[in-house]
Write a structure and sequence with these properties.
Number of helices: 17
Oligomer: single chain
Radius of gyration: 21 Å
Structural class: mainly alpha
Helix content: over 70%
Number of domains: 1
CATH superfamily: MFS general substrate transporter like domains
Order of helices and strands: HHHHHHHHHHHHHHHHH
Largest sheet: none
Strand content: under 5%
CATH class: Mainly Alpha
Length: 431
């Protein structure tokens, strides 16, 4: 852990960027669990939960192209701060939702919140290479993953308790406060403004967007890496819906001693917090352990993605076969070791190889594909339960088998491009 601590100590800008992420992520998990509880109370159907997640993802797909252009044209720190402030105001609107007749407002506010999130995510992904030396990019991404997973474990557990004991309203207020604190932390980041070469002026929003596509078309390895998360989310996206149903219908936390101690009014919400905690442990430990074993060379990071796909598919498939909460948590842990590796190593490779002038658009494209495929997977999970008559376990095992198919497609790409990755030269970092 020494190199991660050294990065935080020695790099003031990354330290504040990381601190803002810690604060914001804590609130995010409060928000997700509170929203899941609210949608379950208002309309306890699989498709209604699917619509909640689609409302979180589709806006990010639609607005990511614009977000990428903005991240390459304007100050990325300013974009992040404005996004945090607007999200802080938006989530307070959830407090007025009281009845099933207002479910449309829940979806509308969720859409609005994630429109602003679509501006934040590519800007943050692109700015990391502006504040971190190229030799530290894998370290920074691994630390981000560890942070995400730690906040998932801590935030989801606390969020589950807060929502179960005090209600969803308290969780929404906490989420709003964390966005404001995140904006304060990010305001302390000092980023050098990249000066474009003469003749590299912006061509206009749409032409800038098309120019980013031309770059990807001419760089097959970069294009493939930008699709890694999207391909994975075709598989892991559905688990967002399934684990809510597993928590509420299959493994609710009804232990009498725990219920008496914590005065749990909603056993399903409490279980969901524990499931997210297991997810946090997997996504945090996975990239760290695989990185220690594989190292930071590009071709080895590609190997890590390959292993990650296999673990992801195995974890989802096995989650449909188990009959106890401990075994389900183990399957979740296995799955998230894989998804963590896929996420961290693909992001680090893109930051290594994509020039700064294209970085915002490349990450926006990656994020757009990710949210689109995740939405498809989520809709499948709800539709399969409600319209196809499949049990939760059947949906999980079917999704896991599809995951093995996706992993086999990746294997073809891996064998064709691993040698090319070892020969690529990273563009000079600009800070």
């Amino acid at each position: 852990m020494g190199e991660y601590i050294d990065l935080l100590r020695g790099n003031r800008n990354y330290r504040y960027l990381w601190l803002g992420n810690v604060i914001s992520l804590l609130g995010d998990w409060f928000n997700l669990i509170a929203s899941a509880e609210l949608i379950t109370d208002l309309s306890n159907t699989g498709i209604a939960i699917s619509y909640l997640f689609i409302a979180r993802f589709i806006p990010q797909f639609v607005f990511s192209p614009l977000a990428g252009v903005l991240a390459d044209r304007y100050n990325r720190r300013t974009i992040m701060i404005m996004s945090d402030i607007l999200r802080a105001l938006t989530v307070l609107g959830f407090l007025v939702i009281r009845s099933p007749q207002q479910i449309w407002l829940l979806y509308l506010l969720t859409i609005l919140q994630f429109v602003f999130s679509s501006m934040f995510t590519p800007a943050r992904a692109a700015i990391i290479a502006n504040v971190v030396d190229s030799k530290d990019l894998v370290t920074a991404n691994a630390l981000d993953s560890l942070t995400w997973s730690t906040m998932l474990a801590l935030g989801s557990f606390l969020g589950g308790l807060v929502a179960a004991i005090f209600g969803a309203e308290t969780a929404f207020i906490a989420d709003s406060a964390t966005f404001l604190l995140s904006a304060v932390a990010i305001s302390r980041v000092s980023v050098h403004i990249v000066k474009r070469a003469k003749g590299a002026a912006h061509q206009g929003g749409w032409l800038d967007f098309i120019d980013g596509f031309r770059y990807l078309r001419g760089a097959p390895l970069i294009l493939g890496l930008s699709l890694v998360k999207g391909a994975g989310s075709l598989v892991w996206g559905s688990i967002n819906v399934l684990e809510i149903s597993f928590a509420d219908k299959v493994f609710p936390l009804t232990h009498p001693i725990l219920s008496d101690i914590f005065h749990i009014n909603d056993p399903g919400t409490a279980t969901l917090g524990i499931i997210y905690m297991a997810s946090g442990l997997g996504t945090g430990l996975g990239p760290l352990l695989l990185r220690r074993w594989l190292g930071d060379k590009p071709e080895r990071l590609l190997t890590g993605i390959t292993i990650g796909y296999g673990l992801m598919a195995s974890g989802i498939w096995s989650s449909g076969l188990v009959n106890s909460l401990p075994l389900f948590l183990f399957s979740t842990f296995l799955r998230t070791i894989g998804t963590g590796a896929v996420w961290v190593f693909s992001a680090a490779l893109l930051q290594m190889f994509v020039p700064d002038k294209f970085r915002g658009r490349v990450f926006a494209f990656e994020f757009a594909i990710l949210t689109l495929t995740q939405s498809v997977s989520i809709f499948w999970a709800g539709f399969a339960q409600d319209s196809m008559g499949l049990a939760l376990q059947q949906v999980a095992t079917t999704t896991g088998l599809f995951g093995f198919f996706v992993a086999s497609i990746w294997m073809i790409f891996y064998f064709r491009n691993s040698a090319r990755a070892s020969q690529m030269v990273a563009p000079e970092s600009v800070k």
